[in-house]
Amino acid sequence: MSLLTLTRIDVDQGGKQVLHDVSLTLERGEIVTFVGPNGSGKSTLMRVLIGAIQPSRGKVTRSAGLKIGYVPQKLHLDPTLPLTVRRFLSLPVRVSHDKTHAALEAAGVGHLCDRQMSDLSGGQFQRVLLARALLAKPDLLILDEATQGLDQPGSADFYSQIEKVRRDLGCAIVMVSHELHVVMAASDRVICLNGHICCEGEPEHVASAPEYRALFGTGTHGALALYRHEHAHSHDDGCSHDHTHKETA
Ligand SMILES: Nc1ncnc2c1ncn2[C@@H]1O[C@H](COP(=O)(O)OP(=O)(O)OP(=O)(O)O)[C@@H](O)[C@H]1O
C-alpha cells in the first residue's frame, strides 16, 4: 500500500487559491523532490503532507500508523543557551543514549554528541536536525529547503547523506529545494509545482519538459548532466562532492 495519497486537493489561504487540483502518490522508499518558483505552493504542500493544513477540497489518505519526520529550513536557538547536541535531541521528550547515538550516526554526525549546539557549523546543525527527525524512525521524511544557507559543497554533502539515510533506513523522502542541479541528482522523481503540478517524472524528463524550461530556463539541464556524471564518478573513487562546485559555479 502507498504511504500517502493526495486526490485532487485544492488549498485556499487568505482568500486565494494556493494549490489547485494536486494529486500525488508517495511510495515506500522513494526520493521525491518538489521544485517550483517562489510562491508556487511548495511549503503549503509540505504542510498538507504533515497534516498541519487541511485541504479545502479533495482527499488525503495516509497509510495506517504512518510516521513522518520533518526537517525544517532552520531553527533558531538562543546562542547563549548552554545546550549539548545530546540534550537537544532529548527535548522535549527524554531519549535514551543509544537512540540518540544511532540517530546521529544515521545523520553522519555521531561524533558531535557532546558538542554545544552553538558551536556547530551550518551543515552540522542541519544534520543534527536531520538526526532529530530520524529519532521517531519515520516512514516518510520531509525536508523543506533544509540546505538553505549552506554553500554548494555543503548542500551536495547533505543530499548525499539523505541518499544514505534512504539506503540504510528505507524511508521515503520528500524534499523541497531551489538547488535544482544538486537535488535532482539525488531524486527518483521530480515534481514541478506552480500552484498545480506542471510536470513530473525522472529528473532528466522534468529538466527537458517545456513546462519546466518555461519556469527555469534551460541552464540547469547541462549542470544536471554534469552533476550526474560527477556524482557516479564520486561513488567509484570515494571522493567527496566538492568538485560539483567548480562544475556548476
Ligand atoms: N497563511 C497564509 N495566508 C495567506 N496566504 C498564504 C498563506 N500561506 C501561504 N500563502 C500564500 O500562498 C502562496 C504559496 O506560498 P508557499 O509558502 O507555499 O510557496 P513556496 O513555493 O514555498 O514559496 P518559497 O519558494 O518562496 O518558499 C504565496 O503566494 C503565499 O503568499
TrEMBL record:
Any GO molecular function: ATP binding
Domain ABC transporter: from-to ranges: 1-219
Pfam families, A to Z: ABC_tran
Taxonomic superkingdom: Bacteria
Protein name: Metal ABC transporter ATP-binding protein
Organism: Celeribacter arenosi
UniProt entry keywords in alphabetical sequence: ATP-binding, Cell membrane, Ion transport, Membrane, Nucleotide-binding, Translocase, Transport, Zinc, Zinc transport
